[in-house]
Each structure stands twice: as structure tokens, then as C-alpha cells.
Design a protein that fits this description.
single chain, mainly beta, Immunoglobulin-like, 6 domains, 8-stranded mixed sheet, 5-stranded mixed sheet, 41 strands
Length: 586
């Protein structure tokens, strides 16, 4: 009876076990036009039969469609879909019948997908300026990708002026396209959920009529015998053909013409050598391409000499005058090349002339306390202009020199500096001596020195990483100049000059004294120990007797101040005589 109950219990529990039906792989994603198989199987046990059903509920037969194939066994059923299409989307149901006629089912949803793909037919597109342009972009993908356009790497806003818009077929439309719209355009397609994207680019070129670049508005100036280049820079696409004329006469066989191409700019230059007054005229430059023509004129006139310099200034010293020349109000149409500077004593009739290229100069070798007149004229390629009105300036009397200019330069040895002197004005008498004072920044005392007949002074053996103050005065036969103050700092001591590896460190005076004291102390201790063990004297003997209370083991002393004698005791032991014999003697 008990055995029957157990068998019934086992049978009941076996039937109670839930049989599962699964489909692998669990993902139903299939890429467009690709093949994929799905296996439906009973997890525990076998099935009498398997059946697959379409999304519309119709059962799939093994041979009913050349794109759907079934392969069944008692353990599983395999459904294969060939060249998947979007029409295959939907839930597919697998049904298995068990041996007890109980059907079980499992469902998988098939979704056909496609990666985004962008295709642009033409890699280069040309449009006429102000026309309406359409940039085609063929985009495929399942689900439909998100499409954006960029130009030279920057996202194109599709709002604002309304000139740019994206058409339903993802093409980009640009109305009234401009030259500034040229560039590389890229069509981007993204399926954000799957993080998939693709892109393709097209180079947009704008065709336009020629345009003058920075037209010349002022006449060009030159003079007889001087060649002049007349340039005509043009922007155009396609490239323009440029011609030069003067009064309707074609100049290609008369003057040299050369062209420089730097796309999209084209520069044509006409080289005119002015040999007669007829060459001072108006020249025309005309550029033509298939879209239009542009022309411009450039006048060439004869240059004039500069007007007199303005704001002539003079700063007198004893034997020199510092002169400053202002620019003329007019350069005559061509650049000023320099100045003629003249001077004379007020009572003289002849001028002394010097040609200078800058606007400042120093007149030297003048007489002290003398009135001079100065004037200047500018010159250019055309010639010398008129002189300015004379300017009077009186030199100073002979006096002490101006304070010198001073600068320092580090010598090859890092802690040496050379001081250089430059004179502003000697006061009318030659410099005979320079007086130098220098000290460390924190020092109270100055070190004084002087040099004659030289323009430099060397400071040696300075301290490292130290700031020094320097004072210099120039001296002539009359007096000393005012003081020039100057500071400089020495650098860090280089490793090679101190205790570098493999080198020898410098020993200071304190170290030498310490070594000598140590040697003296060692000798003193050695002599004292020798005295202690040989003559029973010295510092150690004194310490032993007075501080430690020890005495000589071979002698006992009595105080000599009491007149007592020294008693010596001798102890003799005899093997034949028992006892001890003691003898005392002085």
C-alpha cells in the first residue's frame, strides 16, 4: 500500500513540473537582406510536434515560401528567414505539442533594421552666384535616420534668414547662393538609439563675375626714367582674362605684363617705364569671364619734391647740438628717402651740409657758447625739396660733462662684471677720468676706484647671488659730472666652482683653526698618558689622586710639613721559618 502511494506521488509531481518552450537567439533584430535562423526547443523533455505561425496567425509551411525554411526534430524546430525584408516585421509564435496533448507556446518579435547610409552622387558642385542651389543627399536606414548638414565642420542653422532649408528628401536648399557660401558641405545621418551614423561630403564652388579687390583710388606718382608697377587684383571664378589699355590702346605689346595666380585671386601687373610726358596718363584694367566683366582705372602722375620738414628742434650742448627733424606735410607722392641738414655760425655765409636718413642727428665739433643757424630739406626720388626756415640755437659754455650712460656685462667668470661707460656730452673738454664707487647692497662702506683712457672697468671676485650698487662720475679739466647710479646682481655659484663631484672643496680659515686645535689636543692627551705610566705625574695622575682618592701601591707618603719620616715595610716569607719577619728602615 505504501509503495503505491509513493509511485502515485512521483507521477503527480512529474506531471506538475512546468515544461518551458524557448526561442534562441532571444533578439529578433535582422539586418535588411540578411539571413537569420531562430531555434524553438523544449527546455525539459520532448515534443510530439512543432508549429510556427506568422504575425497574421497563418501557419508557416515548410515549402510554401522560398524565403522561409523549417527544420524540425523531436527536440526543436529551426525557422530560417532569408533576405529579410521590412514586410517580415512582427511577432512570430512557436507552438509545441507534448505527449499529453498539452500545447505550449513562445513568441519572438522580428524587427528588420538597416544601418544608416549616405550617398552623394557628385563630390563637386558648381553654382552661379545668386542662383538657387540644391545639394542632394540620398539617405537610407531603418528606422529612418536623423539628418543634419554641416559646412566646413560647423552645423548649418536651418532658420534665420530663410535662405537655407532641408527638403523632405534630406537635400539642402540654398536660395540666392553667394560667394561666401562656398565650402565643403557634409550630410550626416544618425540612428541615435543604436549609435550608428554615416556621412558624405560635397565641395560647393560658386561661379561669379570678376570683382576688383581694393580698387586704387589715389593716383600713383613717379618721375621720368623711373619704372613703376601698376597692379590690378581680381577675384573671379572661372578665371578671368585681363587686358590693359591707355586711351583705348592695347598695351600688351608696349609694356611688360605679368600675372600671379593665387586662387581665387588673380593679380595682373603692368610695368611702365616712364620715358616721356605721355606716360603720365590714366591706365585701364578690364577683367572678363563667361559671367561678366569688370574694369578699373589707375592714374599715373609726375611726382613732386617734398615740402619743407616741419617742427625742426635743437638741443644744444657745449660742442654738440642734438637735432630732430619733423616729417614734411607732403612727400610729393613718393616716399621720403632722407634729409639734408645744414648749419652755420650766425655770422657765416656758407652752410655746412650733412645727409641723414633718419629724423634725428647730432652735430659735433662746434664752438662753445656760439650762436648757430640750422635748417633742413627732405628729398625723395624726384629730388630735393625746399629748406625749412632757419632755426637759431646757441651752444653752451665749456663746463663739466653730462652724466655718463652706464651698463654692465657678465664676464665668462660668473662673479665678474665689466662696467661700460658712454658719454652724452663732454662739456666741451675731453673726459680725462671716470670715478667709480661700488658696494654690496647691505654694506655701509663704498669701494672707490678710477680709470683713465678707457671706457670700461672690471669688477672681480664678487660674491655670488648678491646685488651691487654702482656710482659713476665722468671728469674733465673743469669738474665732475653728476652721478650715474646703476645696480646689478651676480648669479648663483655654478656647481663646478664649489664642491662638485670629483672636485676639491675649499677649506675656510675656521676649519683650519679647528683642525689645528684637534691635533694639539690629541698630542696633549698622548703626552699626559705617557707621564702617568712612566713618571707617575700629569693631569691624569692628579685626577686619580685628588678626585678618586687612589695612592701609589708601592709607597705611602707622610705629610712633610710635620717632619715625619717615610717608612718602608718589607715582608719576607720563608718556607723553613714559620711566621713573618718585618723590618722597618728609613
Amino acid at each position: 500500500m505504501l509503495l503505491a502511494i509513493c509511485v502515485l506521488f512521483l507521477v503527480t509531481n512529474t506531471r506538475a513540473v512546468k515544461v518551458r518552450l524557448s526561442i534562441a537567439p532571444p533578439s529578433g533584430l535582422i539586418r535588411l537582406n540578411q539571413d537569420k535562423s531562430f531555434v524553438c526547443k523544449v527546455d525539459k523533455g520532448e515534443a510530439e510536434s512543432f508549429h510556427w505561425f506568422r504575425p497574421d496567425g497563418e501557419e508557416i509551411e515548410e515549402d510554401e515560401d522560398d524565403r522561409f525554411f523549417l527544420k524540425n526534430s523531436e527536440y526543436n524546430s529551426q525557422l530560417t528567414i532569408l533576405r529579410a525584408q521590412t514586410t517580415d516585421n512582427g511577432p512570430y509564435r512557436c507552438e509545441a505539442e507534448l505527449d499529453d496533448d498539452r500545447p505550449i507556446t513562445s513568441t519572438i518579435t522580428i524587427t528588420v533594421i538597416q544601418s544608416p547610409k549616405v550617398r552623394i552622387v557628385d563630390s563637386d558642385l558648381e553654382f552661379n552666384e545668386l542662383s538657387d542651389a540644391v545639394l542632394g543627399c540620398n539617405v537610407t536606414g531603418i528606422p529612418p535616420p536623423t539628418v543634419t548638414w554641416t559646412r566646413d565642420g560647423h552645423v548649418i542653422p536651418l532658420s534665420g534668414d530663410g535662405r537655407r532649408s532641408r527638403l523632405p528628401n534630406n537635400s539642402l536648399q540654398i536660395r540666392n547662393i553667394l560667394v561666401s557660401d562656398a565650402g565643403t558641405y557634409t550630410c550626416h545621418a544618425k540612428i541615435i538609439d543604436r549609435k550608428e551614423e554615416d556621412s558624405a561630403s560635397v565641395n560647393v564652388i560658386i561661379k561669379y563675375a570678376p570683382k576688383l579687390v581694393a580698387p586704387v583710388t589715389k593716383p600713383l606718382s613717379t618721375w621720368l626714367g623711373n619704372p613703376i608697377n601698376i597692379s590690378c587684383p581680381i577675384l573671379s571664378h572661372p578665371m578671368a582674362n585681363i587686358t590693359w589699355t591707355r586711351g583705348g590702346l592695347d598695351l600688351r605689346d608696349i609694356f611688360s605684363i605679368f600675372t600671379v595666380v593665387a586662387t581665387p585671386e588673380l593679380t595682373s601687373t603692368l610695368e611702365v617705364t616712364v620715358t616721356s610726358e605721355a606716360d603720365f596718363a590714366t591706365y585701364s584694367c578690364a577683367a572678363r569671364n563667361e559671367l561678366g566683366t569688370v574694369s578699373g582705372t589707375i592714374s599715373v602722375q609726375e611726382a613732386a619734391t617734398p615740402s619743407p620738414p616741419q617742427n625742426l628742434q635743437a638741443k644744444p650742448h657745449s660742442t654738440t647740438i642734438q637735432v630732430s627733424v619733423g616729417s614734411p606735410a607732403s612727400d610729393g607722392g613718393v616716399p621720403v628717402l632722407g634729409y639734408h641738414l645744414q648749419w652755420r655760425q650766425e655770422t657765416a655765409s656758407e652752410w655746412t651740409t650733412v645727409i641723414i636718413e633718419s629724423d634725428t642727428s647730432k652735430l659735433t665739433g662746434l664752438q662753445p657758447y656760439t650762436l648757430y643757424q640750422l635748417r633742413a630739406a627732405a628729398f625723395n626720388g624726384k629730388g630735393l625739396g625746399n629748406y625749412s626756415d632757419p632755426l637759431s640755437a646757441r651752444t653752451l659754455s665749456i663746463r663739466e660733462p653730462d652724466r655718463p650712460k652706464v651698463f654692465a656685462k657678465n664676464e665668462s667668470q660668473g662673479n665678474s662684471f665689466r662696467i661700460y661707460f658712454e658719454d652724452e656730452d663732454s662739456g666741451g673738454s675731453p673726459i680725462t677720468q671716470y670715478n667709480i664707487q661700488y658696494k654690496e647692497e647691505q654694506a655701509k662702506q663704498w669701494i672707490n676706484d678710477s680709470v683713465n683712457g678707457t671706457n670700461s672697468y672690471l669688477l672681480q671676485d664678487l660674491k655670488w647671488v648678491t646685488t651691487y650698487h654702482v656710482q659713476v662720475k665722468a671728469k674733465n679739466q673743469f669738474n665732475l659730472s653728476r652721478t650715474t647710479f646703476f645696480n646689478f646682481s651676480t648669479p648663483q655659484e655654478p656647481p663646478s666652482s664649489s664642491s662638485a663631484i670629483g672636485g676639491h672643496a675649499k677649506v675656510g680659515t675656521g676649519a683650519i683653526i679647528g683642525i689645528m686645535m684637534m691635533i694639539f689636543l690629541v698630542l696633549l692627551v698622548a703626552v699626559d698618558v705617557t707621564c702617568y705610566y712612566t713618571n707617575k705625574c700629569g693631569i691624569l695622575m692628579c685626577i686619580s689622586i685628588n678626585l678618586l682618592g687612589r695612592q701609589d701601591p708601592e709607597a705611602k707618603s707622610l705629610d712633610q710639613g710635620t717632619g715625619s719620616a717615610v717608612v718602608r715595610t718589607i715582608t719576607v716569607r720563608d718556607k723553613d721559618t714559620p711566621g713573618t719577619v718585618t723590618s722597618n728602615y728609613p
